[in-house]
Amino acid sequence: MTEEKAIAHSNDDQHLVETTVSSEIMAQGKMLTVRYDEARLPNGVISGREYVTHPGAVVVIALTQTGSVVLERQFRYPLKQVFIELPAGKIDAGEPVLTTGQRELLEETGYTAQDWVKLGIQHPCIGYSNEVIHIYLATGLSLGEHARDIDEAMDVFVWPFERVMQAIDAGEITDSKTMSAMLLAERYLRKHPLPGVQV
């Protein structure tokens, strides 16, 4: 094994680990908490760490029988613009992650899915948050009525899988969870092809 591979696959990371010395809440919101910790670095120096705690979320690549991807267009207030995204939502306290994905897909789009495959997880902002996003592929869709929250406004539409990937390449889609999820879905579908889906 080369030195680079040995470092990448090391099982001994103690020389990198930071240890919490103290922790305090700077701001408490309905969903997010801002914390300030003091951490002891591996060299013994004490340094401040500001970060946001998040309950976690689930993102869903929902594929129709014709191989199209269910997408949403919605306004994201922090950036003051409309984004194209996959259906997603936060995990409620004590809720299994698969249940979150099923609930969010139905609430936001009106779709239910017969088959679910977990493709992996994503850490979207490792420098300042502990958020984890669980990624699911959903197939065998049926369309019913959505049940969006009163504070949710979005357009739901479908694009062929290939068109979504082109939109990522062209910079039309810049949402990180959507980009990561589509990459994992593309890799999965190359190994496990589905009728009507071109990747």
UniProtKB/TrEMBL annotation:
Residues 52-181 form the Nudix hydrolase domain. Keywords: Hydrolase. GO terms for cellular component: cytosol. One of its GO terms (molecular function) is hydrolase activity. One of its GO terms (biological process) is nucleoside phosphate metabolic process. SUPFAM superfamilies: Nudix. InterPro entries: NUDIX_hydrolase-like_dom_sf (IPR015797), NUDIX_hydrolase_dom (IPR000086). Its cofactor is Mg(2+). It catalyses: GDP-alpha-D-mannose + H2O = alpha-D-mannose 1-phosphate + GMP + 2 H(+). Belongs to the Nudix hydrolase family. NudK subfamily. This is GDP-mannose pyrophosphatase. It comes from Methylophilus methylotrophus (Bacterium W3A1). The lineage of its organism: Bacteria, Pseudomonadati, Pseudomonadota, Betaproteobacteria, Nitrosomonadales.
